[in-house]
Amino acid sequence: MFCKNCGNKLPEGAMFCGNCGFNIVTNEKHGTDIGGTVFSDTGSELKQRGNEFAHEIGNIAKEETGKGKRPKAFGSVIFVVILAVIGIVVAFNILTKVVEVVHKGTSAQGNESVINVDLRTLLNEIESNPVRAEQLYKNKMIRTSGRVGIINSDPLFVTIDYGNEWIMPVYVYFNRSESSKIANIRVGQTITVRGTYDRGVANAIRRAVLE
User: Fold this and answer.
1) For 115-210, CATH number?
2) DSSP 183
3) How many CB atoms lie within 10 A of CB 123?
4) What is the mean pLDDT of the chain?
5) Are strands 170-174 and 31-34 parallel, antiparallel or unpaired?
6) Gap between the Cα atoms of 14 and 17, Å rounded
7) pLDDT of 122-178, one tens digit each?
């Protein structure tokens, strides 16, 4: 049994040609509606149109999938950007607080009340009652004047006294920023210093500046 339209061999009892779609019973070609368009039922046309239709469906699916992915990716980017902005703001606030604390500490140190004390009085106080001397002066900012006995470069310090060789002198340790000033003084010269008193092993004024 063969198709009258295309000559394709058909099995016995077939009603349509599998190659061209010819109706063996009515001897007619049937149109096939695909995507709203009617095409003649030839096998090659059906196959071609089916491939085209499948291709179109695949493109639509990819496009829809892409649309679904893009917003997710975009949302992730936005989320990361927001986190970065929050991190920058938090870091800026912390840095601002740190700067404020440092500034307050520096200002407090600069504005700390200074005890003006005569060097002879200070040394006699230490000699006669060291406990009282510590209560009065330890870790406090003092200003005093004395005669230079020793000048040392490393560490940067000088000793000052009031002319009594039997009394232990005061060791005045300077900040390195004071080195240019220290370079211009000489032994025996009377200087005025300001710094934090610390008795420790020896009488000392630390973090001192030359006035």
Assistant:
1) 2.40.50.140
2) T
3) 23
4) 77
5) unpaired
6) 7
7) 888 888 888 888 888 989 999 999 999 999 999 999 999 988 777 889 999 998 999
147 by Cβ neighbours in 10 Å (0-12 / 13-18 / 19+) ranks as middle
User: Whole-angstrom Cα distance, residue 203 to residue 137?
Assistant: 11
Each residue's pLDDT tens digit, 6-19? 888 888 877 777 77
**Sign of the four-CA dihedral 66, 71, 74, 79:** negative
The DSSP annotation for 102-158 comes to HHHHHHHHHTS--EE--HHHHHHHHHH-HHHHHHHHTTSEEEEEEEEEEEETTTTEE
**What's at 162, amino acid-wise?**
Y
For 40, residues 6+ apart whose C-beta sits below 8 A from its C-beta are 29, 31, 32
Of the pLDDT bands very low, low, confident and very high (cuts 50, 70, 90), residue 202 is confident
Q: Model-level pTM?
A: 0.46
Q: What are the boundaries of each domain within the chain? A: 115-210
Which residues, in sequence order, are CB contacts of 146 under 8 Å at separation 6+?
A: 119, 160, 161, 162, 169, 170, 190, 191, 193
* Cα atoms in the Cβ-side hemisphere of radius 13 Å centred on 147: 10
Does 75 have pLDDT greater than 60? yes
